[in-house]
Amino acid sequence: MKLILSAHVLVVDPDPQTRHETGEALRLLGIQRITEVGTLEEASAAFDAARVDVAVVSGVGGPDGEPLAGQPRQFPAAPGRDLNAPSILLLADPVRSDIRAANAAGYDAVVPLPLVPRTLYRRIGSLMQRARRQERTRPPAGFPGGPVMLPAAAEAKE
Fold first, then answer.
1. Can you list the alpha helix ranges (DSSP code H) found in the chain?
2. How high is the pLDDT of residue 64?
3. Predicted confidence band at 63 (pLDDT cuts at 50, 70, 90)?
4. Interatomic CA distance for residues 10 and 26, integer angstroms
5. How far is residue 72 from each of residues 76, 92, 96, 98, 101, measured CA to CA in Å?
6. How do the domains of the chain map onto residue ranges?
7. What does the pLDDT read at residue 134?
8. What's the predicted TM-score (pTM) here?
9. Is the pLDDT assigned to residue 51 strictly greater than 90?
10. What Å distances lie between residue 111 and 17, 74, 101, 150, CA to CA?
11. Which of 31, 109, 114, 139 has its CA at 20 to 30 Å from residue 88's CA atom?
């Protein structure tokens, strides 16, 4: 898990105390590069300013936080979605429809509240490993993708 110790984690939460406690819990587990912001707009600015490996988002529910009866929760788009940066949504009592809605909004994982720091740490590590694997298998920039026919193979086919 050396990869996770060098990670840059962005913690997004409107409550300063919760934001600080989440960041401090991750620091105690060994992650040193943590940026704490209060809004998704500030998170976008943080993504523009530096390379962020994982975003941890909490407290982004609707105006009252709870949906109407029978209605699934709505979540804003995950920060860093356009940059293929993994993001984790912290939710109190998530149900299957909440997880689906979070995935549709671009979140890669949902971690239940109350937060167990070790669970969040492990989820960050697994998302970073998955992102690293995808980076390795992604074709280089400018590569058109698709099969490549070498001249010798083309002659053999004829």
1. 2-5, 16-28, 40-49, 96-104, 117-137, 151-157
2. 45
3. very low
4. 11
5. 13, 14, 10, 6, 7
6. 2-157
7. 76
8. 0.77
9. no
10. 19, 16, 14, 47
11. 139
